[in-house]
Design a protein that fits this description.
By secondary structure, this protein is mainly alpha-helical. Helix content is about 65%, strand content about 0%. The chain has helices at about 5-15, 25-30, 35-60, 70-90, 90-100, 110-115, 125-155, 160-165, 185, 190-215, and strands at about 155, 175. The longest helix has about 30 residues, at about 125-155.
Amino acid sequence: MTDYKRIVRDGLWDNNVVFAQMLALCPLLAVTGTATNGLGMGLASTAVMVAAGMVIALFRGLITAEVRIPVFVLLIAAIVTLVDMMMNAWLHELYKVLGLFIPLIVTNCAILGRAESFASKNPVLASAGDGLFMGLGFTLALVVLGAVREIIGSGTLFANAALLLGEPFHFMELTLLPDYDGFLLMILPPGGFLALGFLLAGKRLLDARRSRVAVQPEPTPDAEPVAG
């Protein structure tokens, strides 16, 4: 039976695309100047991962081992093209901001890696779940990194959400530090590397703490003193 709890835990934390596997760092560092950009990129990548997982799982019995990688790339490219066209039609402002990084989802090795290691060996529902939670874990990393950089860099959170994602997202726009002059370094590429380094260190510390708690022996009743 498919272990869906494991799929959720792996995607969001234990085997997170960014914080555990260190994949997809190019779009991660390039588009996370704001949390809004990170959210848009993450949701687009999630849609591709879910669709790719389902399609590859559906046809896994028809795809021979010798041609599986070219076929996987072709299927992923077709799905990314559809996502690219839909974003251009319905989220045009966000599409202009993300630019070339939407078509480059095709080269995201995390998507091809999950297709090879999971979707090609599991049924459709499990593959859709794997794609969903791997995508949500990637989205989480993008949004957290974008939020850190945006707050420190300009004192705002989800700036221009209504413009990029649509008017219903206006409620997300926050000014956390009024009259803040900003810290330009965090918005520039070096700031992305710095913020990512601290976030990776934080995850390692949390994992080490969890490991220590898990192996800590349970307290035993005090032994009675032995008369000498």
